[in-house]
Fold this protein.
Amino acid sequence: MIIQKILSSGYSLSEIESMEKSETDRVFKSTVKERESSYVLPDYKELSKELFKPGVTMQLLWEEYFDECRFSSKQAYQLTQFKKYFREYLEKKEFSDIINHKAGERLEVDWAGTRPRWQDPDTGEIVSGWLFVGVLPFSGYGYAQVFADMKQSSWVTGHVNMFDYFGGVSKVIVPDNLKTGITKNNKDEIVINKTYSDMAEHYSTVIIPTRVRRPKDKASVEGSVKQFTTGIIARMRNHQFFSMEEYNQQLLKVLEELNKKPFQKKDGSRYRLFQEIEKTCLIPLPDKPYVLCEWKKAKVATNSHISLAKCYYSVPYEHIGEEVDLKIYENELEIYLNQVKLSSFPLEKNKIGVYSTIPEHMPINSNAYGEWNSTRYLNWAKQKGPSVYQVVQAHFDGVKIEQQKYRTVHNILSLASNYDNLRLESACQYALKHFTCPNYKNLKAILVNKQDLIGKQEKPKETKQLKFLRGSEYYE
């Protein structure tokens, strides 16, 4: 290449050797410029948007660029030059600091260390809340909301509102190891709180908390949150608020200002970078937002019902004795076994002893599911007395599904173990004079207060008179 340039330049070798450096640079740089002018320069502005997307690398972009040039019979840069010019472009545009993050891949969340405050208008007391903050590290685009506490309901609600604000969900959520979200995190396993995990599943995302005793992990999350929090607190320092709602209203305005504030060292802003690149990389929102719920466990009793807040809900009789998961909404209950929904019911509130039963959950023959049934309970009651039998019969006559009364009847008959059959019979006899269908509490109160003994005198116990007989030896 150099020899060809010397021959075509019209200069002899001795003349070139005697030239100044600036002159030789002029001669040979022109060769480079002529050579490079025949190459197709990649559109690094568009390629940079693609590079930040998950799974996209410089190698892949070069391969696509090279194939495009080959099909159009144009000269393409080789991989080394392609990467060299690409990095120069990123550094020039100040994109080098976000090259380590992929758009829409990670979302860092935490409670801010600085607590927002407002004044109670009635008492004048200064009230402190808690600031929930979530930041997308790629664009720096963030969300924040104030809550009265750091309970699980506030934590989950903050996530749901944040996803709605972003219009999508990142592939991974990275929280710190707070108790409301992470139950266990060690080298052997990570256990996510059931409600938090259920929320993540609803939005098709994954929760990966920072590793314990890994300062860099924690610093990454706290750094993003702290930087965003500083911007919020600084913009709200001169405002006075008289309620949490008023604080959050102003906070939304500050969020928009902070997200749209131009970068100092590069073009654009958090909002622009989010809108142009990151938003399209987020997981779309589901049709309906996540509804806050609570999870509990319960065991299916012999009457094929589970107990919750002193009310009872049926489960298919095949699962008697098994432990099930209860998903408790504000107004609804869902019952699961191994993540399979068995049944659902409207939640009974401010009631006691109410049964919600699906007839199909009960076996055709009571004997089919266990040893207890109405016949056995009635036989047991008959052994204790006619009044006891009458009480038990009244309970079974009052329901269509006999299993609903097993627990009540069993408790009534068990009273005899603490007193005796005679007292239970006496109490039932007394109760039937005042109630059509006496329940356990009625009978328990009668026995405790000895109402069944009023007017009855206990027969004195007969005492045998002892006689002393002298032996035959006395009379000799």
In short: The radius of gyration is 40 Å.
